[in-house]
């Protein structure tokens, strides 16, 4: 497969020769639309910016030639980008069109903090925009820039997920204009690029020694862990001890039961709780025990007698290792799969075995619903019984 090389046009006719008849007509119309706007009013400036946006979408590899041959000679690249940003911000927030063009150009700059744009939008929507002057807007922007925390390479940052909650990573690199950051996980996996304005510094900047991938593969359900979260929304759980309930290898997370709360954490946020061994008695303690045995000379003779009608010994009822009532249906299904996996003899890297486990889970849940009639209470009792059976 060969790629056609585009020879840079030297004249306007050469530029038109690169276009189809339909594109040529569109290019002329967009150029005329740009010229027709006096660019003295907000509406006219927006029309010019919209024409540029449409041209950039229509002539992806030839937009620079469009700007060269269809726009005025004194139209710089900064002016072109500024007009497109201004049109975009008005399209996203129509109420901002109430401000004069100078204020709009200030708000549409890439360096303007987003909270200032939000504030100015709220003022426009409540018809308080008349009181704002250009100097006041510039002062607000300058003050906001002073309070913005600069994110740099190596920082541990967090960002909000599209569904719920936050996730975190480390800044691997930053674009020259500072708009975009390349993020990696704490163990070095590439997480892609994120807009800098979407990132905030994590409350915890020092990386602690969490559970590694290797440890996670051999970690058993029911093991105790210490929680050391990175994200700001989970800092209240720092130092809590919990029990591993469910593993999600693809998401690299665990569901942890902390008694009063059940929460999902990443592997890096957990640390295995090692039980301290019982200390051995010292020589002095051993000698003391021996001396005590020597001094005890008082003995009592006891006559053995037969015990009749003895009542059976009552043992306390076994308590579940963790409560599954607060788990979602997805988490219960994953827990059931983990338990069945344990019953099969541990981890099963074979894909065929994993498929069989999925089928076994579906069959078990289907039969359970048929037996219980879909009772949530009996389903929870079955889960507790299965947990106790597997860990007894």
Helix-strand layout with pairing:
Blueprint: H1 12-17, H2 21-36, H3 42-58, H4 63-70, H5 77-92, H6 101-107, H7 114-125, H8 134-147, E1 156-160, E2 166-174, E3 180-184, E4 190-195, E5 200-201, H9 213-218, E6 224-227, E7 241-248, E8 253-257, E9 262-266, E10 270-272, H10 283-295, H11 329-343, H12 351-372, H13 376-391
Antiparallel strand pairs: 1-2, 1-5, 2-3, 3-4, 6-7, 6-10, 7-8, 8-9
Describe the structure.
Residues 276-295 are annotated as: Disordered. The chain has 392 residues and is an alpha+beta fold. The protein has helices at residues 12-17, 21-36, 42-58, 63-70, 77-92, 101-107, 114-125, 134-147, 213-218, 283-295, 329-343, 351-372, 376-391, and strands at residues 156-160, 166-174, 180-184, 190-195, 200-201, 224-227, 241-248, 253-257, 262-266, 270-272. The strands form 2 sheets. Strands 4-3-2-1-5 form a 5-stranded antiparallel sheet, with no helix packed on it. Strands 9-8-7-6-10 form a 5-stranded antiparallel sheet. Helix 3 (42-58) packs across helix 5, helix 11 (329-343) crosses helix 12 (351-372) and helix 11 packs parallel to helix 13 (376-391). The radius of gyration is 34 Å and the shape is elongated.
């Amino acid at each position: 497969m060969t790629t056609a090389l585009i020879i840079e046009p030297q004249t306007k006719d050469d530029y038109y020769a690169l276009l189809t008849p339909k594109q040529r007509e569109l290019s002329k119309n967009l150029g005329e639309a740009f010229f027709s706007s006096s660019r003295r009013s907000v509406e006219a400036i927006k029309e010019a910016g919209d024409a540029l946006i449409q041209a950039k979408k229509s002539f992806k590899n030839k937009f620079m030639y469009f700007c060269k041959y269809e726009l005025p000679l004194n139209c710089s690249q900064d002016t072109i980008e500024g007009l497109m940003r201004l049109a975009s911000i008005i399209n996203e927030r129509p109420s901002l069109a109430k401000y004069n063009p100078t204020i709009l150009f200030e708000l549409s700059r890439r360096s303007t903090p987003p909270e200032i744009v939000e504030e100015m939008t709220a003022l426009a929507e409540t018809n308080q925009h008349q009181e704002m002057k250009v100097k006041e807007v510039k002062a607000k922007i300058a003050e906001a820039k002073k309070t913005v925390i600069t994110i740099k390479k190596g920082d541990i940052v967090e960002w909000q997920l599209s569904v719920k909650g936050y996730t975190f990573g480390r800044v691997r690199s930053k674009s020259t204009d500072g708009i975009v950051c390349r993020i990696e996980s704490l163990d070095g996996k590439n997480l892609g690029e994120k807009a800098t304005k979407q990132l905030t510094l994590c409350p915890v900047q020092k990386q602690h020694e969490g559970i590694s991938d290797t440890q996670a593969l051999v970690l058993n359900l029911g093991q105790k862990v210490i929680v050391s979260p990175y994200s700001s929304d989970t800092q209240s759980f720092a130092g809590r001890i919990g029990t591993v309930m469910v593993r999600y290898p693809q998401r690299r997370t665990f569901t942890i039961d902390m008694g009063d709360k059940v929460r999902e954490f990443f592997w890096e946020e957990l640390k295995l709780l090692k039980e301290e061994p019982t200390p051995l008695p010292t020589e002095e303690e051993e000698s003391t025990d021996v001396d005590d045995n020597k001094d005890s000379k008082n003995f009592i003779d006891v006559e053995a007698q037969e015990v009749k009608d003895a009542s059976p010994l009552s043992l306390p009822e076994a308590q579940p290792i963790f409560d599954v009532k607060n788990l979602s249906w997805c988490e219960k299904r994953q827990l059931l799969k983990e338990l069945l996996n344990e019953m099969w003899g541990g981890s099963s890297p074979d894909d065929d075995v994993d498929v069989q486990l999925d089928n076994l889970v579906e069959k078990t849940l289907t039969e359970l619903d048929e037996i219980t009639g879909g009772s949530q209470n009996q389903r929870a009792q079955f889960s507790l019984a299965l947990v106790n059976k597997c860990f007894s």
